[in-house]
Design brief:
The complex is a heterodimer. Chain A is mainly alpha-helical. Chain A is built from 16 helices and seven strands. Classes of the chains: A mainly alpha, B alpha/beta. The A-B interface holds A 340, 343-345, 347-352, 354-359, 380, 383-384, 386-388, 390 and B 11, 13-14, 17, 20, 68, 96-100, 118-123, 125-126.
Chain lengths: 558, 145
């Protein structure tokens, strides 16, 4: 049992992340060459290449084996990317067989096969070099394939044409017409066929079964593409543009699989029709027709995957946002759990400290000297203060997670209710303050009442050593189009030095000593958090010994 | 026989201070049975295992139940009490250190009769315990009366 699990761990660690990173290539390149699986795939690739090449050669010009439609190039590049670079010999063997079957001599055939294999290998190496993702999830993947599919055929076209000329298959005068046909044939093969094969042979993403409305849509798209492409390319004359909306439909709704398959379907019908003298490109000599058609197909073959990649990129970024939101929710829940245990586990020992100090004072009051009693009281009052600080911190942190529920509220009523409640517990229950007609606004009533509670508590606290207490709750009307109503609470209390005003709203930061005015230093931090949550601003003006005014707005004024 | 109050409290300091307050409070604070975890609480209430002699027919006037408890937590104990035909009418007072909204709502959903956050300040703690005991033992009419 132990041995088995150790063995499994070894297997896992020897092959880290091979499943997630590049399931298409890396895992297989590690496998040995001399396996049944390798030769089976070797055979399949070679046969597929040979079959596609024979199909292409049906359209070959009189000069033997050069054809404007060369599907094997698409199969070859896809095979190297999906199965791995070590399958290049299969391509070489199949290419050589193709050339021989087309009737060229062995030396010319070897040269052409070498040129073609070099082209495919170069294309695959370049793609991997540029961090190509065979799922075409980004626009850059499509562009990379476009560039590579245009450049790498230069190798095969140049070597192949040279071999044909050197071997006496084509005359020197034909080199200038054969070279571009060779080039375009290989290029379109890569641009149209490689994406289809890559996105359909890609592992990891299962095809899945569409629910029926989507299956119906897919069927409509497929038949519309077949019918329209048939109408365009299997009749005389007409234009090729009506097919673009279908390709866009496929790309927007069915991703890379739908886009590439639709392009393949249209390309097949287009090539067949054009070669047989039908469709919009069926005029003039066959070389000219095919050149026009191939440019058209290349445009289609690039447009569709780019569009699909754009849609995918958008969906990916949406998924990423959702993922972050989920992560944030988890961390919020963890924070809440943390706050919970802080609340529970820190309070209990404080209660014990305070409780046993009190018990000691009660039980041994007579035998304790006054100094000991005083120290015991100190211990108790510090435990109580720590309890208040914990509560304040919890309230402050809970506020961060609380959702704002805006309502149409009347700040005057709220301020008045808060004041009535505070006055009941105040030193001077006959105290009067002035509350002016505050304009109604949109705010969270619970939180706004907490704002007034903190500001009025402060005003009462800092005027507690005055005879003629003056506290005023008022507002400044919104000025200008973008101005917001400014609410304020003014007192004629202790005030503070304006040079410390930036410390005013920090958590636990206080401008007065506990002996002067007790407190936790959380009230204004909480107030600022509430105001900021509303999109508003809070600031203060004060003169030491004369009083302080706290201003706030509840929205940005827009 | 049953005590007037069943107190379920795992923190020995909290328990001792609470018992001290109730004992000194005098004025008919009644007898208190202390158990220190949720499992023992259930054994006491249903007269099983360690409390095999007790009958479930006679229940305390009220149960002071902590939320965070070893073995079986307070909300689980509450759920058992409130979903059992024989005990669901017994008043249960949740006495806890934390005022987490989730606990509070859950406790009320399960049928808690009261939810009290134990104050840190011993003076406040004393008056809370005394007020609570006085209310449930003297003011409140028990279901079996």
């Amino acid at each position: 049992m132990v041995e088995t699990s150790a063995h499994e761990t070894d297997l896992l660690s020897a092959n880290p992340s091979s499943e997630s990173e590049r399931p298409d290539t890396q895992q297989r390149t590690r496998a040995p060459y001399m396996t049944m699986a390798y030769w089976l795939r070797f055979t399949i690739v070679a046969i597929a290449y040979f079959g596609a090449a024979r199909l292409g050669l049906l359209l070959a010009f009189e000069h033997g084996n050069v054809t404007p439609v060369w599907p094997p190039s698409g199969i070859a590049v896809a095979a190297l990317i999906v199965l791995g670079m070590r399958f290049w010999p299969a391509l070489f063997v199949a290419a050589f067989a193709t050339e021989i079957s087309a009737g060229v001599g062995p030396w010319v055939g070897l040269g052409q096969a070498a040129g073609n294999t070099l082209e495919y290998t170069l294309a695959a190496v370049l793609l991997q070099r540029f961090d190509f993702d065979s799922g075409f999830r980004r626009i850059r993947d499509v562009v990379t394939l476009g560039v590579v599919g245009t450049l790498s055929p230069i190798v095969a076209a140049t070597i192949g044409t040279a071999c044909l000329w050197a071997g006496g298959v084509i005359p020197g005068a034909a080199v200038r017409t054969i070279w571009p046909v060779y080039l375009v044939g290989d290029g379109v093969g890569i641009l149209v066929l490689t994406p289809v094969l890559l996105v359909w042979l890609r592992r990891g993403r299962r095809v899945g079964v569409y629910p029926w409305p989507r299956a119906l849509e897919a069927a409509s798209l497929g038949s519309a593409a077949a019918i329209l492409a048939g109408l365009v390319f299997l009749r005389a004359g007409g234009g090729a543009y009506p097919l673009f909306p279908l390709v866009i439909w496929a790309a927007l709704r069915f991703g890379q699989r739908g886009a590439t398959l639709t392009v393949l379907l249209i390309s097949a019908l287009a090539v067949f029709g054009t070669v047989h003298g039908m469709g919009p490109f069926a005029h003039g000599p066959v070389t000219g027709r095919l050149a026009d058609l191939l440019v058209y197909l290349a445009a289609l073959g690039i447009t569709a995957p780019i569009l699909a990649a754009a849609v995918l990129a958008h969906r990916d970024s949406e998924e990423r946002v959702l993922h972050y939101v989920a992560e944030l929710e988890v961390s919020n829940r963890e924070l809440e759990a943390f706050a919970y245990s802080v609340a529970h586990d820190l309070r209990a020992p404080l209660r014990a400290i305070d409780g046993y100090s009190a018990a000691m004072n009660e039980d041994f009051a007579e035998s304790l000297p006054p100094e000991a009693q005083r120290n015991l009281n100190r211990i108790a009052s510090n435990a109580q203060q720590l309890g208040r600080l914990i509560d304040a911190l919890l309230n402050f942190s809970r506020l961060g997670a609380k959702k704002l529920v805006r309502e149409h509220v009347f700040p005057k009523q709220i301020a008045y209710q808060v004041f009535e409640r505070l006055r009941a517990g105040a030193r001077n229950p006959d105290l009067e303050i002035s509350i002016s007609e505050l304009p109604p606004c949109s705010a969270d009533p619970t939180l706004l009442s907490l704002v007034y509670q903190n500001l009025l508590e402060n005003a009462l606290k800092f005027t507690s050593d005055r005879e003629d207490v003056k506290i005023e709750v008022g507002y400044l009307a919104a000025s200008g189009a973008a101005g917001a109503t400014v609410y304020y609470v003014r007192d004629n209390g202790a005030g503070f030095d304006m040079q410390y005003s930036d410390k005013l709203f920090g958590v636990f930061s206080r401008l007065h000593s506990q002996a002067q005015f007790p407190g936790t230093g959380a009230g204004l931090a909480i107030t600022k958090r509430i105001v900021t949550k509303h999109g508003g601003r809070i600031w203060a003006e004060a003169t030491p010994g004369v009083g302080a005014t706290f201003f706030f707005t509840l929205d940005s004024g827009f | 026989m049953s005590a007037d109050i069943l107190m379920v409290e795992d923190n020995p300091d909290d328990a001792e201070l609470a018992l001290r307050v109730l004992k000194r409070g005098g004025n008919g604070a009644g007898s208190v049975q202390l158990v220190t975890d949720g499992a023992e609480a259930l054994e006491y209430i249903y007269g099983t295992l360690r409390y095999a002699g007790r009958t479930v027919e006679i229940q305390p006037r009220t149960i002071f139940l902590d939320v965070k408890l070893p073995l079986v937590n307070g909300l689980e104990v509450l759920k058992r009490i409130k979903s059992d035909e024989r005990t669901r009418r017994t008043p249960v007072v949740m006495l806890t250190s934390s005022n987490a909204e989730t606990d509070r709502l859950r406790a009320y959903d399960l049928g808690a009769n009261s939810y009290i956050v134990k104050p840190v300040d011993f003076g406040e703690f004393t008056s809370a315990m005394l007020a609570c005991a006085a209310y449930w033992l003297r003011l409140n009419e028990p279901p079996g009366a």
